[in-house]
Specification:
The protein is α+β, with helices and mostly antiparallel strands and about 400 residues long. The protein is about 30% helix and about 25% strand. It has helices spanning about 1-5, 65-80, 95-110, 120-130, 145-155, 195-205, 210-225, 245-255, 305-310, 360-370; strands spanning about 10-15, 30-35, 45-50, 55, 85-90, 115-120, 140, 165-170, 175, 230, 240, 285-295, 320-325, 330, 345-350, 375-385, 385-390. The strands form 4 sheets. It has a 7-stranded mixed β-sheet, with helices on both faces. Strands 14-13-15-12-16-17 form a 6-stranded antiparallel β-sheet, sandwiched between helices. Strand 13 and strand 14 form a beta hairpin. Helix 4 runs parallel beside helix 5. The longest helix has 17 residues, at about 65-80.
């Protein structure tokens, strides 16, 4: 993960194809490519413990991150002559972060009229992919969803051990097995080398050595078709010979120049590395401050009691308008049944007018310090080009 970030490897590409009838699968015609954003989302790794009971992890989604990965997915689909790109998000809940990813997908999809596009919520989309993967072709997703579902897709295609992974950036690229390392198999001559081999094939294609990639991939498919299998995919009555890591690799090498007969042979002509335009920053939006959220560590349980304490800060030019707990509005007009932790969001809006002077924020913090209120974090509330760009409390 560190290597991906330092080298700017923003696109993770994971093909997941069925090898039926030679590798067991419930999805014999599955051929899906997962294109996963690789640098941001919850994988930014920014976490904090804020109270006795609550920790947070920041989900960071950027417009450059969205534009680059979505455009890569469409360019990949066009290059590989695929028919459709599907976007998975959860923007019905995460309206700002996943909402941005979905909005950028819709914007860029208009530039590719030759490719069908669609959007699914991640929950039902994941269920559909696990049940009917043949309904999908290329799927583009934010980082966390893509990490989870690419492993699911590889497994239901036959085995995670068979899948390779490409990490693509503007200057560098890195290739690996989808499953990562397997130290418990080290030195035993058991591990299936197919994942690393598939990573190498993706690398050869990326470097423009498509003729070599094609020979190796077809030799590998022929070896699978021959029934020469490592332990993880070996099945009596289907497999012909169980082999270890070295003998499987030797079999693939011996089959160079051969093409599968039942499985579809590959042709990588025209699969040179994609050349995508660099991100161009748009003009800055008009940005106006219209409030601030103060996050408070308070061990009490009564929102009304907390409101009485926090309202003492109001003569700084802002007034308390709402208190939430874990995103649910609990004041004013909350429900007594709502369970509350010791982590409270107290929203302040301008006491007069529709914008807030930034000088009010340190004044609020100072008065909170004097009152003994433990403010653990602040978040400014902005409008961009006149549109509110922050979440409301659930129950609003």
């Amino acid at each position: 993960m560190t290597t991906r970030k330092f080298l700017g490897l923003y696109a993770n590409v994971r093909p997941c194809r069925s090898l039926h009838p030679f590798v067991a699968t419930k999805h014999p015609v599955m051929d899906v490519v997962i294109v996963r954003e690789n640098e941001e989302d919850l994988y930014a790794g920014i976490e904090h413990r804020q109270t006795d009971e609550v920790v947070q992890c920041l989900k960071l989604i950027s417009r450059p991150g969205c534009e680059r990965i979505v455009r890569y997915a469409f360019e990949y689909a066009r290059q590989q002559k695929r028919r459709k790109v599907t976007c998975f998000t959860k923007d019905n809940i995460m309206k700002q972060t996943d909402g941005l990813f979905h909005a950028v997908f819709d914007e860029i999809a208009k530039e590719y009229a030759d490719i069908e596009n669609e959007h699914w919520n991640i929950d039902i989309g994941a269920a559909k992919m696990a049940d009917t993967p043949e309904a999908f072709d290329v799927i583009v997703m934010p980082n966390l969803y893509g990490d989870v579902l690419s492993d699911v897709a590889a497994q239901i295609a036959g085995s995670v051990g068979l899948a390779g992974s490409a990490n693509i950036g503007e200057e560098c690229a890195m290739f690996e097995a989808i499953h990562g390392s397997a130290p418990r198999r080290a030195g035993q001559d058991m591990a299936n080398p197919s994942g690393l081999l598939q990573g190498a094939i993706l690398m050869l294609n990326h470097l423009g050595q498509t003729d070599i990639a094609e020979r190796v991939q077809n030799a590998w498919l022929y070896t699978i078709e021959e029934g020469i299998h490592t332990y993880d995919i070996f099945k009596e009555g289907v497999s012909r010979r169980k082999v270890g890591t070295r003998d499987f690799a030797r079999a693939v090498a011996a089959n160079l120049g051969k093409r599968p007969e039942t499985l579809s042979p590959v042709s990588y002509a025209g699969s040179e590395a994609l050349q995508l335009p660099r991100f161009t920053r748009a003009p800055q939006a008009v940005k106006e401050l219209e409030g601030v959220d103060l996050f408070v560590h308070w061990p009490g349980t009564s929102p009304d009691e907390l409101a009485g304490l926090v309202k003492g800060l109001e003569d700084t030019g802002a007034k308390l308008t709402m208190i939430t707990n874990r995103g649910i509005k609990v004041w004013p007009d909350g429900f007594p049944e709502t369970f509350c932790t010791d982590h409270w969001r107290c929203r302040f809006k301008p006491a007069a007018g529709d914008t807030l002077d930034k000088a009010v924020i340190p004044a609020l913090l100072h008065r909170g310090l004097e009152a003994g209120i433990d403010i653990v974090k602040t978040e400014n509330l902005y409008r961009f080009d006149g549109k509110p760009a922050y979440s409301l409390g659930q129950g609003q």
